[in-house]
Specification:
Elements: E1 3-8, H1 15-23, E2 40-45, H2 49-58, E3 62-64, E4 67-72, H3 87-94, E5 99-105, H4 121-152, H5 158-173, H6 185-194, E6 202-207, H7 210-218, H8 222-234, E7 237-241, H9 243-251, H10 254-263, H11 270-282, E8 284-290, E9 294-301, H12 306-313, H13 315-319, E10 321-328, H14 329-335, H15 338-343, E11 348-350, E12 360-366
Parallel strand pairs: 1-4, 1-5, 3-9, 5-6, 6-7
Antiparallel strand pairs: 2-4, 8-9, 10-11, 10-12
Helix pairs in contact: 1-9, 4-5
């Protein structure tokens, strides 16, 4: 699997509508708060034209794309961190995801009630962010109490952890999320142990009306511009979609979708843009294995070395790693096949320190 995203937002902002469109999973959609109680989970294939072309080139019997898991988490409300609207339960569902997809309502519709009575994207974003910060503050306070006990018991190493935890507490008490700050390797380890919500990268998804989607490509609506300003300030990603358009798109046969997008003046679907934004935020790349039995895409973080990439396939390959035979996707396409790549001396043999590059086509030599 590539990565997983938790879809969050206030009730009735279009979360489940978008989730249905992205995953075709049929999550319940209703015009009242807390329709989604337990999180819905959907897994979608990551679209990658490179994998299709490799499968054709190698005449692969099986094609296995990498995937993204979307978790549709119930609508949060003000007071969620204190348990309002089953908030504590909902917040717990977010702790295990790699990134947060924050759906922000940017459409007017009198038939769809707004939990706050009116539409205000900036206010809606602040409500969700505040609840995440308050939940993190509670977790940090508990960790701080634990660190204090260790210091009093004479644990010399605990003093550094206490100082770091106090720093986190000051940030959160000011209302600042902790993502995007510089941390030492040891601080990063402590941070990961806390599973803090505001440490997770965020993609804001401005959910607009279908009529505003084309306007957005020209100058954007004022609501979308406000979301962009907030995202830029936080270093977050932002994409603009119409949940209704995505629903219509997913209902069409695959061969008709490109024409539908073209009519709307769009080059790709909201799903494609969301996946790309997620990859960029999380610093992920794709490498491939290809042959007659199977062509497959694999997702790893940037700066991953060859043995660890091999471990994505199987732990035995990482343990017994000898070398990696590397061809670049661009060389394969330019040369027309693996044989031509070898003939032109473009096949590389790399060792344990080789850093995997996006688009590498790899064959691992290993000994069990």
């Amino acid at each position: 699997m590539g990565f997983n995203c938790g879809i969050v937002g206030l009730p009735n902002v279009g979360k489940s509508t978008l989730f249905n469109a992205l995953t075709a999973a049929g999550a319940a959609v209703a015009n009242y708060p807390f329709c989604t109680i337990e999180p819905n989970v959907g897994v979608v294939e990551v679209p990658d034209e490179r994998l299709r072309r490799l499968a054709e080139m190698f005449k692969s019997k099986k094609v296995v794309p990498t995937t993204v898991e979307f978790v549709d988490i119930a609508g949060l409300v003000k007071g969620a961190s204190q348990g309002e609207g089953l908030g504590n339960k909902f917040l717990s569902h977010i702790r295990d995801v790699d990134a947060i997809v924050h759906i922000v309502r940017c459409f007017e519709d009198p038939d769809v009630v707004h939990v706050s009575g009116s539409m205000d994207p900036a206010r809606d974003i602040e409500i969700i962010e505040t609840e995440l910060i308050l939940a993190d503050l509670d977790a940090v306070e508990r960790r701080l109490q634990s660190a204090e006990k260790k210091v009093r018991s004479g644990d010399a190493k605990a003093a550094a952890e206490r100082a770091f935890t106090q720093r986190l507490h000051v940030m959160l008490a000011k209302g600042d999320p902790i993502r995007g700050k510089p941390y030492t390797p040891e601080e990063t380890r402590w941070l990961h142990e806390l599973h803090l919500l505001t440490d997770k990268p965020v993609v804001y998804v401005a959910n607009v009306a279908e009529a505003d989607l084309q306007k957005e490509t020209v100058h954007g609506t004022s609501h979308v511009q406000r979301v962009r300003e907030i995202a830029q300030r936080e270093g977050a990603g932002v994409i603009v979609v119409s949940g209704k358009v995505e629903e219509e798109l997913i209902a069409l046969p695959k061969e008709d979708r490109a024409a539908f997008l073209k009519e709307l003046g769009l080059a790709e679907s909201g799903l494609d843009r969301l996946i790309r934004a997620g990859y960029e935020l999380l610093g992920l790349i794709t490498f491939f294995t290809a042959g007659a039995p199977e062509s497959r895409a694999w997702t790893v973080p940037r700066e991953t070395k060859a043995p660890q990439a091999a471990g994505k396939i199987h732990s035995d390959i990482e343990k017994g790693f000898i070398r990696a035979e590397v061809m670049s996707y661009s060389d394969l396409i330019a040369c027309g096949g693996a044989s031509a790549v070898r003939e032109r001396g473009l096949l590389r043999v790399e060792g344990r320190d080789y850093v995997i590059q996006d688009g590498d086509v790899l064959y691992f030599r290993f000994q069990v």
